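In this section we walk through a basic example: taking a raw amino acid sequence and producing a predicted 3D structure, encoded as discrete structure tokens. The instruction is simple. Fold the sequence below.
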Amino acid sequence: MRPIHRLYAWHLRSRLAGAALPRHVALVMDGNRRWARQAGFDDAGVGHRHGGEHLRDVLGWCAEAGIEDVTVYVASVDNVRKRAPEEVAGLMRLIEEAAAASGSGALRGWRLHLAGDLDVLPESTRSALRRAERASAERSDTGRPARFHLTVAVGYDGRAEIAAAVRALLADEARAGASLDDVAERLTVDDIAARLYTAGRPDPDLVIRTSGERRTSGFLLWQAANSQLYFCDVYWPGFRRIDFLRALRSYAARARP
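The resulting token sequence is shown next.
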């Protein structure tokens, strides 16, 4: 970090002392491919690799700020199904490598949760993610419970998530012998929330999207209904600590008393 940026980061941190900060931050890590092209690389995988490595830095910033829940949007269903096969294959390899290393380094101390339709992923990727999730749960169960929680949204689509939750609710009620009229009369938002991919995790207070796009792309449609949104004009691998602190400053300024 350049000296002027270090000074500015110190200034931002000092302004945040005692401020209301989000407890849960969700990140749309957008712009890896455009960052790679801007840097002169033809291979989008270079951007994805830099983006994945950069997540470790950002998780460190979150931990320093006392943010205990982070949800990251890694890949949508459309990303997996519609992008070039070689790009998707490279991204899946990176996810598998990250999953294998999730118990060490910057990810140590973070309990992993998965959100998405894992069936759209290759079997090797699906298995690697589930092994990592089980391992992080076992570490938390046998030792000191994890303070920090990382939810990885992969093979994710917000509308499909809500539809799946409703289907699960109807199936549960049918097994219990309830009629559709019974379900319609008793249905609450909590019934649906309990069957989302993220059931058991708090809703995000702040959603940050990089790359300059001003849209959520179906990310956490249900969970982010009351979240603050912050759009940053830099690509994800170039997302700096000062950009992160600016997002927290924006949140603090808008937080309800």
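Looking at the output, two observations stand out. The CA atoms of residues 45 and 87 lie 6 Å apart. The domain at 22-254 is CATH 3.40.1180.10 (Undecaprenyl pyrophosphate synthetase). In the next section we compare this with other chains.
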